[in-house]
Amino acid sequence: MPEFEKRERAEATIKEMGLSDAIDTRIGGWNVKGLSGGQKRRVSICIELLRRPRLLFLDEPTSGLDSAASYHVMKRIVGLAQHERISVVASIHQPSSEVFELFHNLCLLSCGQTVYFGSISSANEDIEQGFAKEAINVLVEAYETSDISRQVKQFVDEIKLQNGRLEKKGKQAGLIRQCAVLTRRSCLNMFRDVGYYWFRFGIYVALCLCVGTVFHNIGSTYSSIQARASVLVFISSFMTFMAIGGFPSFVEDMKIFTREHLNGHYSVAAFVVGNTISSFPYLLLVTVIPGAMAYYLVGLQQDASRFAYFVLLLLSCMMLVESLMMTVATLVPNFLVGIIAGAGIQGIMILNDGFFRLPNDVPKVFWKFPVYYISFQRYANEGFYKNEFEGLMVPDGQSGQIRGEEILRRVWQMEMGRSKWGDLGVIIGMVVVYRLMFWVIVMAADVLKPMSRAILARLATRRTNVED
């Protein structure tokens, strides 16, 4: 479909749903009021209507709305459905008489059993026959023996014989198009949401200024060995730990993703790619500027290539933590519990990074194998240490000098068989692994959730039958 036709369809849908006055208003969130509840509900429906589906399912489209807003929303949906020849299936609890009269057919359920299924015009007469009885099961039997029930069953049998499928009016956008749209939308959302990166950016700048003044120009004395390691550990630990601060905003994105993915708008891969690309420039910003302030104020090795590696490794660590929190979000959708879980995981990783407890002193049971070897902070620290100490000459406190490589082996008990680029490769590999874990968990949930609900429904039905 050409771009101008897409825009025309979007504008027509907005107009049909009565949202023209709010076209330049943001949806809103925790920091911006934005649209009203009824307008937000209509926006959600507009998103589904954009594809002009042949069959549209709406679950409680009037939930949380007053009677006037409910009637307005449903009237717009009915009008658009008639114009575009869309079949609408909506579940509504206790609709008003005005909303009820907008429907053409009614499926009335009681305890999971069909009480009535037919046209609205015949509903009152048929139901009144059942309500003369006292028990619900008699009401169900009254429907099953009615002429309307026989007509419905005959119509269903005819459809089965035809073996037909819904007419397809178009095809889904390709992966590249999905990624492009999601990247643009996510990037815009991150720019507008202060809590995503901007607030953290201010905290990073302030803390790196503090680090730069406390460790200002540490020099190359023997005492600078401990100071250099402390600075590097603090920067990597604090900046990666603070990366969980964007978790609440990501949880809001996950709610939108869950709804739109289940409705078939785009794939999990498109969401992962879009989120990765859109977050990269912001992560680069919050890494380069605060990192440069701390790096040069402290007086670490004045070499452009070493600073570039420092930024690249720090950026990779930030991406890794965000990937980890993506995985946490799929398992713990509540943002408060997710932050606590993420902070706990981060604490364990920092505890086993080889600084607070030297590698040879870490207890071998559990903490050394496997925690120490899967801790990303361990590989981050090794990369930072090697980048800073390799090629450095420090007075040994007596009459000679000690090489940086010797410091890494003797003082920090570092494994020298792997270069700093190898440590960076491990971090990048972990980024990929965590993003793949997110993809696998979401795909598994798509399969397991319907199965679990079906099993629970069967158990509930059996329990009801036993009680009866």
TrEMBL record:
InterPro entries: ABC2_TM, ABC_transporter-like_ATP-bd, P-loop_NTPase, Plant_ABCG. It is a multi-pass membrane protein. It holds the Pfam family ABC_tran. GO terms for molecular function: ABC-type transporter activity; ATP binding; ATP hydrolysis activity. Residues 5-63 form the ABC transporter domain. Keywords: Membrane, Transmembrane, Transmembrane helix, Transport. Coiled coil: none annotated. Residues 177-389 form the ABC-2 type transporter transmembrane domain. It is found in: Membrane. The chain crosses the membrane at residues 194-215, 227-247, 268-298, 304-321, 328-351, 424-448. One of its GO terms (cellular component) is membrane. Belongs to the ABC transporter superfamily. ABCG family. Eye pigment precursor importer (TC 3.A.1.204) subfamily. This is Uncharacterized protein.
